[in-house]
Design a protein that fits this description.
single chain; 370 residues; alpha/beta; Aspartate Aminotransferase, domain 2; Aspartate Aminotransferase, domain 1; three-stranded antiparallel beta sheet; 13 helices; 15% strand
Length: 370
């Protein structure tokens, strides 16, 4: 699914040199490379503030902690996403309120948001799934009408851009009050371990988040608030600084592979290809097709038999998971999420895909479905 080794060998001299500098300085925690990477990522995303942390999950938790929410406050999000989105809400004693997703993009259905708002609602938390952004302009308008915070889960969409109706262009993760991303190795910008970052345009909020990520300290050994220990290691920051300089070419390579898939599979029977919205670019963290639910697992197995890896993101929506069934206490249905869980299949998508590999994948898939 992802050729991290091949990618490393292409940039090996740069990565090795960057890591060697950290080893020579031995500033392994809060080192110079962390500061340099935060500054570079802020410039790339045009975000006023970037605070790095230990993972995308921590980024989401820190974002919620920074808003001084109270137990029982409600956060509107989706059931079709990675568990971190809802996990951090539950861990903080907040109440996740779910709305369904769109069948074509798998992103939050913004037409369902206002019906889910109550007097306890404090946050809308959209997820930019698979590398394409939600309709953020509409979400921000709703948030302003109801005086709500917006936290973007941009863990799969770093580098995607949204164009608003006034022509302004915005990077994923920088439109809401807080944005979050992950540097898990398989992400478009991934390190060689875990890592994450928080984006905000609010200097005061950024200082609050930075303190909370460092045990709640404002100065060493003085604690102004309850915090956590969540930091990006200096070695990982050094790797990310190198890879950030290649991010645009990485995204372009994924988009090129996606174009091949789109053209080669355009008239293939029995499948639906990823939809592209008019307002957001797509960075193709995943290339996810939709098959008839009766066929999905059979197709997956036949591709595996042919040596082609695939993944199902995600096989069970969160409201049907044992830990989160309480989110739908009256057996409330989220039909689109439930249908997608039975139909989605992600094909290999990474920066090192060759023409020969793409031809083999698509020809094999076509033969299975013909």
């Amino acid at each position: 699914m992802v050729d991290l080794n091949g990618q490393y060998h292409k940039i090996q001299p740069e990565v090795d040199a960057a890591m060697r500098q950290v080893l020579e300085r031995s500033d392994f925690i809060h080192g110079q490379a962390v500061t340099d990477f935060e500054r570079a990522l802020a410039e790339y995303t045009r975000s006023r503030q970037v605070v790095t942390c230990a993972s995308g999950t921590d980024a989401l938790q820190l974002a919620l902690m920074a808003l001084d929410l109270q137990p029982g406050d409600e956060v509107i999000t989706v059931p079709f996403t990675f568990v971190s989105t809802v996990e951090v809400i539950a861990l903080l004693g907040l109440r996740p309120v779910l709305v369904d997703v769109c069948p074509d993009t798998s992103n939050m259905d913004v037409t369902k948001i206002e019906a889910a708002i109550t007097e306890r609602t404090k946050v809308i938390l959209p997820v930019h799934l698979f590398g394409q952004c939600v309709d953020m302009e509409t979400i921000l308008q709703i948030a302003r009408r109801h005086d709500l915070y917006v936290i973007e889960d941009a863990c799969q969409a770093l580098g995607a851009q949204v164009t608003f109706s006034d022509g302004s262009v915005h990077q994923a993760g920088t439109m809401g009050h807080v944005g979050c991303t992950s540097f898990f190795p398989t992400k478009n910008l991934g390190c060689y371990g875990d890592g994450g970052a928080v984006f905000t345009q609010d200097d005061t909020l950024a200082a609050h988040i930075r303190s909370m990520a460092n045990h709640g300290m404002s100065q060493k050994y003085y604690y102004d608030q309850v915090g956590i220990n969540s930091r990006l290691d200096t070695l990982q920051a050094a790797v990310l600084q190198v890879k950030l300089s290649h991010l645009d070419e990485y995204i372009a390579a994924r988009q090129q592979a996606a174009r091949f898939y789109q053209e080669a599979l355009a008239d293939c029977p029995g499948m639906e290809l990823p939809s592209i919205t008019p307002f957001s670019t797509h960075t193709y963290h995943q290339y996810t097709i939709r098959l008839a639910s009766a066929l999905r697992d059979e197709v997956k197995q036949k591709l595996a038999d042919a040596g082609i890896p695939t993944m199902v993101y995600y096989p069970c929506p969160l409201h049907q998971q044992a830990a989160y069934r309480h989110l739908a206490p009256r057996q409330e249905a989220f039909p689109v999420s439930e249908s997608l869980a039975k139909r989605v299949l992600s094909l290999p998508m990474h920066t090192e895909l060759t023409l020969e590999q793409l031809q083999y994948i698509t020809s094999t898939l076509r033969s299975i479905l013909s």
